Structure formats: C-alpha cells, structure tokens
Amino acid sequence: MLEMRIPSHQLRDLLKLYFIMGSQNTDKDPRFVLEEAIQGGITLFQFREKGEGAKTGGEKEELARSLMQLCRNHGIPFIVNDDIDLAIAIDADGVHVGQDDEDVAAVRERIGDKILGVSAHTLKEVEEAIEDGADYLGIGPIFPTGTKPDAKKPQGDTLIRAVRKEKIDIPIVGIGGITAENASFVIQSGADGISLISAISQAASPKESSKQLLERIMVPLAQNK
Ligand SMILES: Cc1ncc(COP(=O)(O)OP(=O)(O)O)c(N)n1
Ligand SMILES: Cc1ncsc1CCOP(=O)(O)O
Ligand SMILES: [Mg+2]
C-alpha cells in the first residue's frame, strides 16, 4: 500500500486538542479517563508512560494496546512518546521525541511515514527538527508545570511568535501548564493547538474538562485563519 506523510492541513486539525497521558498521571483507570476525554472531543492522543510509578515491559505494552484500541474505535490517532520500539511493535500512528531522545533523522528512517513530533526550545532546534523530518513541533513549557520534573524554564509565547515571525509554517502545538484559563493565549501566539496532561487527567470530569478546553480555543483558532 502506497503510504505518504500526513499533509500539514490535516495535522493542524488533529493538533487542536492533543491529550497526553500515562497511568502515572491519574488515580483513575487510564482507560476510563481516555474514553471520557474522547467523548469530550480530544483530537489526538499521546501515550506517555514514564517517570515515577510508570509501567514497564509487558504491562506497559498491554496498556498501550488497550488505549490504542480505544483511540482506534473513535478514529483518534495514537502517538507514542519516546519509545520507538513500542510504537513500531504495536503499529502506532506516530511518535514524539525530544532533544534528549533518539536522533530525529534516525527515528524518521525507522518509522517511515508515521507521524513524527519533535520538541523544540530554540529557533535552531526548530530548524533542525524540520530538516530532520518532523511533521509537527511541541513548543514549551509555555507556563510552569508540575507534571514534568525536568521541564525547561517556562518561555511563554516567545518562541511560537518568533517561529511565525520567520514565516515558518510547520504545525505547532503548545505544551506546559495549559488550562482552560490560559488556552486561548497559546492559540493567539500562533499555535495550531494545545497539548496537555493534568488539565484533563486530573479533572473531576475529564469529559467536561475536554469540552471546556475545546470551547475556549475555537474562537482564537478561527481568528488565526
Ligand atoms: C506534544 C508534546 N510536546 C512536547 C513533549 C515533551 O517531549 P520531551 O521533551 O521529549 O519530554 P518527555 O515528554 O519525553 O518527558 C511531548 N511529550 N509531547
Ligand atoms: C510533557 C511536557 N513537556 C513539556 S511540559 C510537559 C508536561 C505537560 O503537563 P501539564 O499539561 O500537566 O502541564
Ligand atoms: Mg521525550
């Protein structure tokens, strides 16, 4: 079957409300949280099983397959964070890597036309990621976050605005400390979407939180067009 890289316009739509979660991010059953988030309207999901309390080995793969099936039931692409071997083993829809993970060009070689997301914190990293085959960029942390202990210093909208000022049009998602209260700020900076963990995974109702986040970004997204 002839495959091809996902077109940017299609990816922009997927990046609107990009939920990221691992079992370590919630006290609830992660399958329940993901199903609720899907019902609430998330547009993309990333499996990020890492850090204290995260599953490993067979348990991690079993959870990945279970969450991927929920996504497949609703036509939501399933992205795996960091673990390229796992992504290939379960035929995930894509991967996300950062500056301290496997080399981007090597990952592109390994995954073929699957979706490839790359974290970038400077214009140089943005340009290198594009050169090496990134389909989208994750830029942040925009705001302070307690979810990723080794996160870099919050940068606000500075880099997103700088990228757009350079007329670099790659799909971008903001990440880091994003909530319903500050989501529109991220879109107004020129991002195509918001990606987040605790605003949904820690919510009393992941479904209602997802719906509210989507409501908060619809107008600024329309204004970016
Ligand atoms: C969409 C998105 N953006 C950024 C990240 C962070 O990736 P990375 O810098 O590799 O850090 P870890 O998430 O691996 O701790 C992401 N995962 N997703
Ligand atoms: C994975 C990641 N990368 C930069 S900040 C972050 C954590 C985002 O979690 P939250 O949305 O709970 O701040
Ligand atoms: Mg990583």
From TrEMBL:
One of its GO terms (biological process) is thiamine biosynthetic process. The gene is thiE. It comes from Falsibacillus albus. 2-[(2R,5Z)-2-carboxy-4-methylthiazol-5(2H)-ylidene]ethyl phosphate binds at T145, G146, T147, G177, I197, S198. Residues 17-200 form the Thiamine phosphate synthase/TenI domain. This is Thiamine-phosphate synthase. Binds 1 Mg(2+) ion per subunit. Keywords: Magnesium, Metal-binding, Thiamine biosynthesis, Transferase. It comes from the Bacteria. It is an enzyme of class 2 (transferase).
